Amino acid sequence: MFEIFGIPSQALFGQLLLGLINGSFYALLSLGLAVIFGMLNIINFTHGAQYMMGAFAAFFLLQYFGINYFLALLIAPILVGITGIIIERLFLRWLYHLDHLYGLLLTFGLALIIQGLFRQQYGSSGLPYQVPDMLTGGRNLGFMFLPNYRAWVVVFSLVVCFVTWFVIERTRLGAYLRAATENPTLVRAFGINVPLMITLTYGFGVGLAALAGVMAAPIYSVNPLMGADIIIVVFAVVVIGGMGSIMGAIVTGFTLGVVEGLTKVFFPEASNTVIFVIMAIVLLIRPAGLFGRTA
Known about the structure:
- By secondary structure, this protein is mainly α.
- It has helices spanning 9-40, 47-65, 69-90, 100-122, 148-170, 172-182, 184-189, 194-220, 226-241, 246-266, 274-285, and strands at residues 3-4, 7-8, 138-140, 145-147.
- The protein has one domain: Orthogonal Bundle (ABC transporter involved in vitamin B12 uptake, BtuC).
- It is built from eleven helices and four strands; from the N terminus they run ββααααββααααααα.
- Helix 1 packs antiparallel against helix 8, helix 1 (9-40) packs across helix 9 and helix 5 packs across helix 6 (172-182).
- The protein starts with a strand and ends in a 10-residue tail after the last helix.
């Protein structure tokens, strides 16, 4: 084992891996938030609860139906996305033309209700969810031990983020989505059902949160408060990257995860606040965020 800046290599690279894992979840969650805000103009505070629901959906699918992790990666986001569609149809569609504060307050209230219901039923100690057999074990790279599941989380998150960015920024569907946010009347003239597009977009953003929840379940266990612990950090990530910016959400999510991991090595006392310090600095220099559009 060798040392880097007086730090054992295994400790340093271990924290880098932890930072990449956290960054994977930050990126997926902030990506979902960016999609929802960019399309619906809603600050979705329910996102943390929907992340938690994804983990619980995977747990229920395994516990009661014997559905394994890989199928849960497909089924759980769809199920939670459907609940998101119901929320959008019942509540959010009345708020699109109002101030952002109304959407934030509504989704914050919904998050408290959802978390309270799950906590009442399942407590707050957490439920175990096993790593799938195919991804157990790890590889000794010499300078560190790399668990297979954690490597899978990072790689799969990168793939999902890239595919989402490509669809929104480089395809005709993405062009329609972006056009619908700026001029829905013109998009309707092409025969496109804009309200349905908005509803499905919200369901997709919620599905991304649920997907992150399924991936987090074997690492952090399934806990009703797991979303509350991460959502504040994710909102900071979104603000730093730029509200509604797809690329900003992805790049900032992974980058800040790594920064947070390195801070735990070199200055552990600041690890819980470093992201918020960065947010304050970015807002002072560039209020729209690193990738956001300036007015």
